[in-house]
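Researcher: Quick sanity check before group meeting.
Model: Go ahead. Protein one:
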Amino acid sequence: MAQQKKEKSLIAKSQSYFGDYLLMLLALCVPAVYYCGRRAVFVLLASVGTAVFCDLTGGLLFYNKILLRDLCAVFTGTAIALMMPPTVPYYVPALACVFAEFAVKIPFGGSMKTPVVPAAAGFAFACVCFPGEVFSFPVSGTSATGQFVSGTSLAGMLRKSSSLHLDPVSVSDILTGSVSGPMGTACAVVLLGCVVFLILRRPRAFLSCFGFILACSVSALLFPRVNTGALASLILEICSGSLLFAAVFFVTDPATSPKKPVYALLYGVYSGILCMLTRYFGIYEEGVCFAVIIANCSWPVIQSLFDKISRNGGSPEKEAA
């Protein structure tokens, strides 16, 4: 009886979290469909459909229960799709969802027990296996007409150029998502709206998000990859790739982010530092998902060290003595 009550509590908690997150993802689907047309809808259907099917069959086969009720599968499929270019072959997000479900979520019994964020792991899998398809972006607006004119994302430009300039028109395009890049993570205005939503609905989760954005912002100002000024570096780094998207949806994941407010903030800062390191030194133009996975795996050790120092009055050696 106690086990059943605990299980119901976890499902209710998961439904509450992912229900809010799905509302935010739905807002991001609007500019994705506007700029990418029906192709965005098909990519979303392929990704979400695969995630839901894997979650349903995996839960029934391995646990004789329906894991689908926690809404994590719908979230995972939607998040993975929105991080893809609209031109991606449908099998790429589908396989990413298969990996996220069968390698990360299902073996551990559900969304509130995963050691890493399933959507981040699925996207990282796609990056390693299909980098050409994942990082091939059309010029903004052309995919809606079916022309698929090849373009270069902001994250790709940052890796190659040191003289990117900003003007009122380009800043407007960047903020509204009218640029080459992932079909659902480029609209900074909507993502900033999601940050406000987090403040109102999930203040503890916002601390992780804030710490992440703060660390990335400081890194962009101190170590710019462009020579056109600190403001250009800040805007381009924060608004390129899936940085803001990961700050809102991955760093705040209820299963992997710390519960204590101070630790939530520190975890966000730590994840942000890792994100910028993967951008500066990684082999992919966008390494935020790898940074999130590294943070998920290493933070428990760091938090344990902090706890030990706190218990021993600031000295980790006292307990050993």
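Researcher: Fine. The other one?
Model: Protein two, sequence then structure:
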Amino acid sequence: MPVNLPNILTVSRIALIPAFALIYGLTDSLYWLAALLFALAATTDWLDGYLARRLGQTTPFGTFLDPVADKLIVVTALVVLIGSHASLWLTIPGAVIVGREIVVSALREWMAEMNRRGLVAVTWTGKVKTLLQMIAIAVLLANPPQLDRPWVIVGLVLCYAAAFMTLWSMAVYLRVAWPILSDAFARRSET
């Protein structure tokens, strides 16, 4: 692993995952701390990319690990929250968000194999989706899993907004990649 500040931040983001998950799952009075650790991890998502570009310290390792770290913190937080809330109201947007992450990761992998990864680069819809996800998850982690609490309702509304942006950004990526995908499928079916 090339040791530089952006890569250290990415690794620290991964290291924060068990901390916020355990604090949220094992305590009834430290929800705010779990949310704070998650927010810190989410902030490093922006900061490591900014610093890598600004300092000229982008590396293949960082390019690989950054999106992995992003998906790990979001999926872990959603799994913890869905398990704690035990509510279909949270399970539906959580499943949409996790499903999209799987589809877009597979799409990016496919496009990389076709030497066209640049076509599925992050767009503004993906950035808005990420921001909404991070805020929604932080709000939900900061509160006990009780659907009658106003901040939990705010967190759920934000989670549904994130799920909507998730579907929108996935559609954008699929639309851009569709000509290459359909051409590859057509060639495969001819053989």
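Researcher: One line on it for the slide.
Model: The helical segments are 5-26, 31-54, 60-85, 88-113, 124-141, 150-190.
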